[in-house]
Amino acid sequence: METDKRSTILREGFLVKRGHVVHNWKARWFVLTPDQLLYYKYEGGKRDSCQRGKILLKDCTITSPFLEHENRPLVFKLQTQHGVDHFLEACSREERDEWAADITAAINKLQVTDGAMTHQKDPAKSQLHHINLSKVMDSMYDVHSGIKLSNHMEQGSTYSNCFSGSAVVDWLVFMQLALTRVEAVTLASALLEEGFLRTVGMKSVEALRTAALSEQFMDDSTALYSFPESLKKRGSVKAERSLSAVELSGKVVKRGYLLKQGHRRKNWKVRLFVLRSEPAFLHYYDPTKDDINPVGGFSLRSCLVSSLDDNGVPSGVKGNIQGNLFKIITQSDTRYFIQAPSHQEKMDWIDAIREQT
After folding, report:
1. Which of 149, 172, 176, 184 is most exposed by smallest CB count within 10 Å?
2. 182 and 266, same structural domain?
3. How far apart are the first and last CA of the chain?
4. Closest Cα partner for 167 from 143, 190, 191, 140?
5. Alpha helices by DSSP H, the chain
6. 0.90 cut: is pTM over it?
7. CA angle, corner 246, sides to 232 and 276, nearest 5?
8. Per-residue exposure over 161-176, b if at least 16 CB sit within 10 Å of its own CB, e if not
9. Residues paired with 86 in a beta bridge
10. Mapped to the 3 state alphabet, what secondary structure does 189-257 carry?
11. What is the pLDDT of residues 225-279, one digit of tens each?
12. What is the residue range of 174's domain?
């Protein structure tokens, strides 16, 4: 007996989706099957049994990364065969790339089934150069692991939210996007040529005007560069770091969507959690808002984290929960109740947090 395509789940998890009519962003639970992408609302920490929508994958095209939402660098776009655009945001570059790969594989399999694969160009080959540069830019602009923005002086003038040429080269080599400083300069020159970076101040402007193509970008601590004006609406990476430079300066160890119970209303909401080390902090963000600042967070020093039994509702927990619960008690005795989408994710988060306490 043939298995129904729709009964096979290829992937599922939280994504943040932009609305069609009102262009607000909402966290939804997505389920990928061989021929469609279904999405559901989450109420009280439980998936709504009534699906909110579906995207038929036949003849869809996917663009990942999709960089036109300048304050949301982790978006990818799905366009249906009727030209309807769906904008979806993942919690990390890895998650976005995995979703995009699984959706692309499903679309390609449908085209093979229809005998149409021979007529399709290989988008990866035709857009390789563009996608590579876009991904570099995406990484560089990432709130949590991107290049640091700061104020610089040049010839008596102060320039805000920019970085030096040598800082760009340092970052490209550190992130292993280039093996050597020479490679990094070539890559940075390509970013400059394509408009992903812009010159700031006299020194970099003059270098761009007079240098040969391979020497347009300067590996120099006094040559200044910045992101293009179209990205400035985001408020810059510096805005997040000024909230608390110390607690947000740690290395990102883990990030993902989890459900958190509110302290006052006790309602459950999807939050983007980011775990950092040295210093160890856990911050959470509202993924529906464009604000890059966390809505809350706490030090993991002397915290206690524990798994909660799925049988019954633990004391302090309200609502129609689905399980996979864990609890964090901070040094100041504040209790956080959190639900993971799966048992495995719950255990992964608990292990990761324990390593930092």
Report:
1. 176
2. no
3. 52
4. 140
5. 93-113, 123-126, 128-140, 165-174, 181-193, 202-210, 236-243, 343-356
6. no
7. 85
8. bbbbbbbbbbbbeebe
9. 78
10. HHHHHCCCCEEECHHHHHHHHHCCHHHCCCCCCCCEEECCHHHHHHCHHHHHHHHCCCCCCCEEEEEEE
11. 998 876 644 433 333 334 456 677 778 889 999 999 887 777 888 999 999 988 8
12. 150-234
CA nearest neighbour of 159 among 198, 207, 215, 209? 198
Residue 157 lies in a domain: yes
Residue 75 lies in a domain: yes
Same domain flag for 229 and 290 = no
At 253, list the tokens.
């160890």
Widest Cα–Cα separation across the chain: 78
Q: What are phi and psi of 24, to 5 degrees?
A: -95, 165
Domain boundary among 234, 250, 271: 234
Residue after which a domain boundary falls, among 183, 218, 234: 234
- For residues 227 and 282, membership in a common domain is answered with no
Look at residue 121 and tell me if it is in a domain: no
The three-state secondary structure class of 318 is: coil
Q: Give me 51's structure tokens.
A: 């699906």
- Yes or no: say if 228 and 196 are a contact pair by the CB < 8 Å rule: yes
